[in-house]
Amino acid sequence: MSEIESRICERYDVKKRLGKGAYGIVWKAVDAKTNQMVAVKKIFDAFRNQTDAQRTFREIWFLQKFKTHPNIIALLDVIKAENNCDIYLVFEFMDTDLHRAIKKGMFGRDHQIRFITYQLLCALKYLHTAQVIHRDLKPSNILLDTEGRAKLADFGLARSVLQCQLDDCDPALTEYVATRWYRAPEILLGVKQYTEVVDIWSLGCLLGEMILGAPLFPGTSTVNQLECIMAALPHPQIKGKY
């Protein structure tokens, strides 16, 4: 298996590849020492530029801080690749994600939706109490197991509330904060300073998608996304005369 180093294969018995994207590859594996099922994620050229380096650092740092919470994915190990460019992250294994579950129509009962929503609220309360905003809630970042337990993943775009209030968020990075369908209106409008409420908006979009079985606001562009939101909300009432 040329995509993964032999020394990683010696420690982890790789079973199959789960997915591949622009940032890396994820495998299902078994820890040879503990016999625990894990997910091994290889991030390509993790420090190729400032943006990628910050994203990699944030994901590792935040997950190391929050890994004890039952509704946040546990980061078990961090391994530097031999080429000093790639990096391996080892996580606890989860069976699927919310995107695949919705696509397969797995939410036939209300109590399943309530249980997942409750768990995500617990995770967000934990983060927000620590003054951290996730900023990238979307179905593919919500991992699920066969018993319906949900865990929040991918902290590459997380920021502290203080940073978002005192510093101007990098516009180039902010554009990628949350997939468009789950972005809060203030992010769509280009507001540079925002709070934890952007995560609550995203969670509301996830809840609507679980109920409907389809995205709540499937905008085709930033402007169309705002139009979808405005079409679903009552228009503001303007009092008085000019």
From TrEMBL:
Superkingdom as given in the UniProt entry: Eukaryota
The family classification in the record reads:
Belongs to the protein kinase superfamily.
Q: Where is the Protein kinase domain?
A: 12-242
Q: Which UniProt keywords apply?
A: ATP-binding, Kinase, Nucleotide-binding, Serine/threonine-protein kinase, Transferase
UniProt keyword Hydrolase, yes or no: no
Q: Which organism is it from?
A: Limulus polyphemus (Atlantic horseshoe crab)
Offer one Pfam family short name for this entry.
Pkinase
Q: What is this protein called?
A: Mitogen-activated protein kinase 15-like
